[in-house]
Design a protein that fits this description.
Number of helices: 3
Strand content: under 5%
Order of helices and strands: HHH
Low-confidence stretches: none
Radius of gyration: 13 Å
Number of strands: 0
Largest sheet: none
Mean pLDDT: 91
Structural class: mainly alpha
Length: 75
């Protein structure tokens, strides 16, 4: 069974910030906005789904955070 942890999600956020900074350095601010916007869209979509499934408040935000950045647990 695949599980994501908060520590893995923090690592995923760190890697994502590094990648956005790399895109900024190499491709300019426009690419940083595109990549950062895609990640923000994914977080908002995950938050919407978790709220629709009945989670509220901090539990919904935590679940969306895990869904967005928890992939780093599997690296």
């Amino acid at each position: 069974m695949l599980r994501a942890s908060i520590g893995g999600a923090h690592a995923g956020l760190t890697v994502t910030i590094f990648i956005v900074a790399l895109f900024t350095a190499v491709g300019g601010a426009l690419w940083a906005v595109i990549v950062g916007g895609a990640v923000a869209f994914w977080f908002i979509a995950a938050l919407f789904v978790t709220v629709r499934r009945g989670r509220r408040g901090r539990a919904a935000v935590t679940r969306a955070y895990l869904l967005t950045f928890g992939w780093a647990s599997w690296l």
